[in-house]
Write a structure and sequence with these properties.
8 helices; alpha/beta; four-stranded parallel sheet
C-alpha cells in the first residue's frame, strides 16, 4: 500500500504537479500516545495505512484523519482527544485537516469537538483545519440510522429519542430541521430544543468567514 501511494504521488508530481494528493485516514479506537506507539494502531496493523509515514515522507500532500467518535461516550471522547493530540504534535500538523463526525453527536457536542480541533495542543501546535463529516446528517437527530431504528436510538443518552413524534415522516422532518439549523449554529448564537435537556443554547465556532487552508508548497 505504501509503495502504491509513494508511486502515485511521484507520478502526479511528474505529470500534473499542481494536483494535490490527499487521503482519508483511519483512526479506529485509541490513538498512539507517542510516535513509538504508531505501529500498534488500527491504521497501521489492521488496514495497512501507514499514514504517519505517508505524511512524514511527503507521499501525500495532506491528510484528513477520520476522528469519528461520539463525545457522549466517555471512552470515545478519550479516543478523539488522543488522536487529536497525536495529529497536532506529529511534526506534520500543517498538512492535517482533522475530520470529526457530526452525524454521531448532538449539536453542542459537535461544536465542542470543533473547538478542540481548532485549539492549540499543550505544546502550542495547530492542525491546518477541520473537516465536518455529516454522512447526510449533522447530528444524531438528523441521522436516519437512528430515526429509522429504535434499537439504535434507544442507546442514545438523551431520551425519549422521538420526543413525542409518532411517525417516521415526522422524525425525518425533524432531522432535516436539525440539519438545516446546524449551519446557523456554526456561525451565529443559536439554540435548539433537545428531547431531554429542553432548550440548549449554542455559541458559534466561526464568527468570521472560515479561510480555506493554505497547503505547503
Amino acid at each position: 500500500m505504501t509503495a502504491f501511494v509513494r508511486d502515485l504521488h511521484a507520478d502526479l508530481q511528474q505529470q500534473k504537479p499542481s494536483v494535490k494528493l490527499s487521503a482519508a485516514l483511519i483512526c479506529f479506537g485509541g490513538g498512539p500516545a507517542s510516535a513509538a506507539d504508531w505501529v500498534y494502531t488500527s491504521a497501521y496493523r489492521s488496514v495497512l495505512q501507514d499514514w504517519r509515514g505517508w505524511l512524514a515522507n511527503g507521499y501525500i500532500d495532506f491528510g484528513v484523519p477520520m476522528n469519528y467518535d461520539s463525545d457522549w461516550i466517555g471512552r470515545e471522547q478519550g479516543w478523539f482527544d488522543r488522536w487529536l493530540n497525536f495529529e497536532k504534535d506529529s511534526g506534520f500538523a500543517n498538512r492535517v485537516v482533522t475530520g470529526m463526525g457530526a452525524f454521531l453527536n448532538y449539536p453542542d457536542d459537535s461544536l465542542a469537538q470543533i473547538r478542540r480541533v481548532l485549539a492549540p495542543s499543550a505544546r502550542g501546535n495547530h492542525v491546518m483545519g477541520v473537516a465536518i463529516y455529516s454522512y447526510a446528517a449533522t447530528s444524531v437527530y438528523g441521522n436516519y440510522d437512528f430515526y429509522n431504528s429504535t434499537d439504535l436510538s434507544s442507546g442514545l443518552p438523551r431520551q425519549p429519542y422521538a420526543g413525542g413524534i409518532a411517525t417516521p415522516a415526522g422524525l425525518e422532518q425533524r432531522g432535516q430541521a436539525f440539519n438545516d439549523s446546524f449551519m446557523t449554529q456554526l456561525s451565529q448564537p443559536a439554540d435548539y430544543t433537545d428531547v431531554q435537556l429542553g432548550v440548549v443554547h449554542t455559541q458559534p465556532v466561526f464568527t468570521q468567514p472560515a479561510q480555506v487552508p493554505q497547503l505547503p508548497a
